[in-house]
Please model this.
Amino acid sequence: MKKKVAEIFKKHLGEEPPINKPKQKDFGHYAVPVFKYAKINKKNPVEFAKEICEKVKCEEFENVEAVGGFVNIKLSDKFLDEFSNKVLDEKENFAKSTKDESILLEYISANPTGPLHIGHARGAIFGDALTRIGRHIGYKITTEYYVNDAGRQIYLLGLSVFLAAKEILGFEVNWPEEYYKGEYIKDLAKEAIEVFKEEYFKKEKFGEELSLWAKDKMLEEIKKDIQALKVTPFDNWVSERSLYKYWDEVRAILEKNGALYEKDGKIWLKSSEFKDEKDRVVVREDGRPTYLAGDIIYHWDKFKRGYDRYINIWGADHHGYIARVKAAIKFLGFDPEKLEILLSQMVKLLKGGEPYKMSKRAGNFILVRDVVDDVGADALRFIFLTKKADTHLEFDVEELKKEDSSNPSYYVNYAHARIRSIFRNKGIEYDDVRDVKLTNLTQDEKDLLFLALQLPYVLEDAFVNREPHRLTNFLIDLASEFHKFYNKNKVIGSEREKERLKILAVVGSILKLGLFLLGIEAKERM
Model:
């Protein structure tokens, strides 16, 4: 709707003006500021606004009024009806668009050394919702999971499984200070004994093959966790281990561009030249590349693939890592401004007011699948998407089980189920009211319908600002508006039954589509 309004004004202003929300609801649906155009035409803004009012009068507008340097617009019933038909005709394709921008979105990328915990879940849901919304409005998004399958953590995984297997077999074990704990390690160890046989664990040392086998088993677990969260399958899984063969090539580029120097037997990256607090080691004294070197190779590989934009979703504890990675990208000859780093804060989980129990299986953290089993993926996704990802989130899972307005997930789903129930009881579908003409709309009807039709702009705002919670909050507002409308206005048996059923069909369609774009299945019955 905004687009069409802007096009009407373009005929008289020479370009599409910004379309704003009026300061007061009584002013109308949209407000168009004309100060800029008054100045161009060397006219008083108030007088110029009055002139434009006369020029833009059309059947799409019920009323246009000059207020200061603004033109306030009230949309006509015909205009609202036209877009209502678009919703009912296009269904799940409503608000779809096309964009020229291609994006590589990397998220989760948790180390394959254990199952996903609740902190990982927030980044996973955030990334998936962003992907769903972005793809719907036309961005070409490729999703990627970076597997940290090289380095010390993979060695420790192998060591933990090796020692746990020895202990199961009755051998004496001296556990080191650092190793992975939890029932999942014991489960891996039991399976490893079957695969590698008892003789393997009589040795003092284990081989790399055990670490890689354990890593692959953990990746299988992670993929099950991702599926449990209803995350869209990743397009790419990129192995850190597979990229190290390019280290010499990448190092040569860095050296050529003056990015490296040697000190204390180590090779350093001059990251302090690009906003990092200090330079960073990329090669240890023994010649082994550091974790940062792996990230540099990975981003070199990413940027070589030629996307318009790159988005990484990291845990908030990686904030200090941003400057050094962007510095490396600059030294590699790429534009670091093409990389966005979005941070996802940790989650504090309660159950009945008490801290949620740590998983016995995981040892010292809360497993994704435990919480999904407790409250369901849909409720978890909804609550995670009610706030900005970079803000702290605390919630009680018992609240997600409540069947009242205090539970936003229930509240929105109940609005959708209530509308579906009305149509079931009438024995009709949304398509059956598509050709009803919306005329003589009451203010309540207009307010509900206009709010529902804002979905396309909510989606644009949610994606451009990387804030899926804007969609979640819109759905809560729409559900609230619907509940108020339905409690105040008779639908079935009223003189305006057909018109109101059509409005509810539009609202129901928008609620279902909005929930789908959050990765949530709208409930038909409750």
